[in-house]
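Chapter review: from sequence to fold.
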Amino acid sequence: MKQKQIFTLNAAINSAQLIVAGITEVGAGIILPFNPQADINTDLVNAIMARGDHEQAKQVKVARRNALHQQLEEVTKFIRATRDIFKLSWGTQFSELFTALGFSMGTLEIPDSLEDLIGMLLAIKAQLTAHPTQEVGTLITAARAQTLLDALTAAQAAIVSQEGEIESKIVIRDEKFEILKKRLSGVYQELRMQLAPLDSRWMKFGLNMPGADETPDQVTGLKVTLIGPMAAATKWEAAVRAAYYRVYIRVLGVDAEYRAIGSPADLDFTIENLPANATVDVVVTAVNNGGEGARSEVIRIVTH
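The token string follows.
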């Protein structure tokens, strides 16, 4: 049976952890001169740390983005307050006067985009600097506009900086991933020289037995028919790579899990000694020396 291909860092870390556990369990029976446990642990720890550093960097970006959103809310409040103050003297409808505050396109609506809000802060600052008598206390001032502008651009720059940090963490994470994958491949090659293709110890390392068949396909076409008050006949279609089959039942209200009641080699099986007046779910799986395939669809019957 082929080994599962490793496409993600999480899969590589999980595989390495299983291999380390297998080495511990098997003990001196396995010797890995080119990939000793200490080296596997080192690569595993490095991969875990790289994954953690990347995740932490992403969380920092989330926090900085939240800070930017909060700053945008403060800017929007300031622009709204400034607009409403100027409405008292310039009127409640749009006019050319409001272009001095950054409004355009015949509307007094406040824009959503970061770039437009920065432009409005610059315009308000310029207007209040040129006409200081239009300032209102400490709320509507050129200095307040500059403070908000500085905070907004700093929040934006912090996100850009963190995006660069994330990219650098991705590079390191991917490097550690490749190193760990190479280590796992080396372990597999060394195990092949020491374990027979059907040695059950392969599974202690979380690996498939190379000599085992691929697990069978899912059983399809399951049919279950009552043939008496407490018996049912089952049949199904042949599954690819099946050596034999397992029939499971679960009596609702009695069984917490499915339980195997037969392992026929044929494509049919008679279920006997079912409880009376019971609801019973039936499933069938295909089995070979590589393992057990997926369960068939559930067929439910009700006994009399």
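Two observations follow directly from the output. The beta strands are 223-228, 231-235, 244-251, 259-262, 268-271, 279-288, 291-292, 299-302. The two ends are 45 Å apart (CA to CA).
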